[in-house]
Predict the structure.
Amino acid sequence: MKITNVRTHMLQATLSQPFAYSRAWYNTRTAMVVEIETDQGVTGWGECYGPARITAAVVETMAPWLIGQDPLRTDALWRTIYANLRDHGQKGAVIQGLSGIDIALWDLKGKHFGVPVHQLLGGALRTEVQAYATGLYRRRSGDPLRYLPEEAAGYVVEGFKAVKLKVGFGVEEDAKVTRAVRDAIGAGIALLVDANHAYDSVAAIRLGRMIEQYDIGWFEEPVPPEDIAGHQAVKAALSLPIAGGECEFTRFGFRELLVSHALDIVQPDTCAAGGLSECKKIADVAEAFAVRYNPHVWGTGIAIAASLQLLAVLPPHTPPSLDPLAPMLEFDRTEHPIRQAILTAPIEHAGGIVRVPDGPGLGIEIDRKALARFAAA
């Protein structure tokens, strides 16, 4: 079997109303999907996290190195592409582009052998995953002290046992909102907070000390990703777990975070950090350092499916025991018209639980009419 074509699909949809995290407003959602074709009619699908037009250009640059190659040689192809661009792209958009290609190759490999990707990655440890609801962004109008607790309570009604709140809007306001959300969801639901690296270590420590009393499951990206010393300072000053890593890339980048003991939880994005090949390696290194791994997920159903295939094989956070603590799936609940529309069968949760797709490859099928409908101009 040989690769005959590599296609990129840039997708875009306008939102019904904008929403914000700590550093920017969204009024559209975009995606960049990779399609790899072979001479045996088997097609693989992947997704790149990051700016769609930039990652599309990256994948199109890499495509000639794939044509005529055996798609089953996933690790060899990954290493070839990485080596070809090592002088120019050890992080960032180059690795994001490589991630989409790698995921598509694994999807293709699973379809070729007629098994789900998790079987090729070593075999599933679980067939379903606890999800946490990512939402609780800011709106143009209304009082966040009213609409955020109401939204959070709605996720609890749906069955989610954990929710993630966006912070980074000022220490005092963040503390008030965190308390309001905790009061709304009650004591039995995990509350995670994410600053999207909006603070320096001084402000992050101050906020952390103010919200520790609300039983925070983790404090995500408290400081900028390149500030390893800042992560260390926040981690040393607070009793709550510190998470991060969605802006880090490959096992080489995560090596520095792990050796420096900067994080309690690493969060590589499967569509950004190097794809399934690399994220499995990152997970193995994290296990050696006894650091928890929960993937960052912010994309379409392809990204969700790829993350679920990886989550199926990740070890529990805890050492072997009768009550293991399993990693969770980030389940984005914000408006995203493209997310499920491009799948012929959407990936949904039932009471906060998401089943791992068990069909060949990623276990999903793509709706080409939806690709055409959301194609970016």
